[in-house]
Amino acid sequence: MKGTKLFAGLFLVALTMVLFATSCSKSTTNPNAPYIGTFIGTIGAGGVNFGDTMNITTGSTSSSVIMLSKLSNGTSYTLNGTVNGNTMTIASQTISIYSGTDTVTGTGALASPALNINYAFVSSATGTINWSFSGTKQ
Questions:
Q1: With bands split at pLDDT 50, 70 and 90, how would you rate the model's confidence at 1?
Q2: H/E stretch holding 3
Q3: Cys staple from 117: which of 73, 81, 108, 137, with CB 3.0 to 4.6 Å?
Q4: Residues 71-81 pLDDT 10s
Q5: C-alpha angle 61/67/73, rounded to 5°?
Q6: How far is the C-alpha of 81 from the C-alpha of 91, rounded, in Å?
Q7: Cα–Cα distance between 34 and 56 in angstroms, integer?
Q8: Which parts of 33-91 fold into alpha helices (H)?
Q9: Burial 46-60 (b: 16+ CB within 10 A, else e)
Q10: Are 95 and 77 in contact (CB under 8 A)?
Q11: Rounded distance between C-alpha atoms, residue 17 and residue 11, angstroms
Q12: Mind listing the pLDDT tens digit for each residue in 82-113?
């Protein structure tokens, strides 16, 4: 009888420790997970439209993403962004595109599976051109 009570007591202590340990574990949910993947759509400005395949991967932090855009005309470029919930921000950055460089800023919104991004591409050769991407996650 005494051994049974001891076993039951040890069992309850062990069970409590397991439950406590699992309830205190860190969440592994990635906040940028809804953005990670391939979005297929179009990018356009002023009546000019191109097909666009955008591959988004995780960046160096839990809220950063890297966007590789491949346009149907053969052009490709990479942008860095940050995400917070359903919004995306593309802070000012300089990229190489066509035969020069542009400074790009932008904002986006995710309404899964749709992603919409508005960009401003600024160069000394063309001035400011506002582009819009609209795509669907594959």
A1: low
A2: helix 2-23
A3: 108
A4: 999 999 999 99
A5: 170
A6: 7
A7: 10
A8: none
A9: eeeebebbbebeebe
A10: yes
A11: 10
A12: 999 999 999 999 999 887 899 999 999 999 99
Is the bond into 113 cis (omega within 30 degrees of 0)? Answer: yes
CA distance 53 to 39: 6
Please say whether the beta carbons of 130 and 119 come within 8 A: yes
Residue entry with tokens 């591409």: 121
- In this structure, the dihedral spanned by the alpha carbons of residues 64, 97, 47 and 54, taken in order and rounded to 10 degrees, is -40
Domain edges within the chain: 33-137
Residues comprising the chain, all counted: 138
- Beta-bridge mates of residue 67: 56, 79
Determine contact, residues 73/51, Cβ cutoff 8 Å: no
Structure tokens at 87: 């919004």
pLDDT at 118: 98
Its pTM stands at: 0.77
Which CATH code fits 33-137?
A: 2.40.128.20
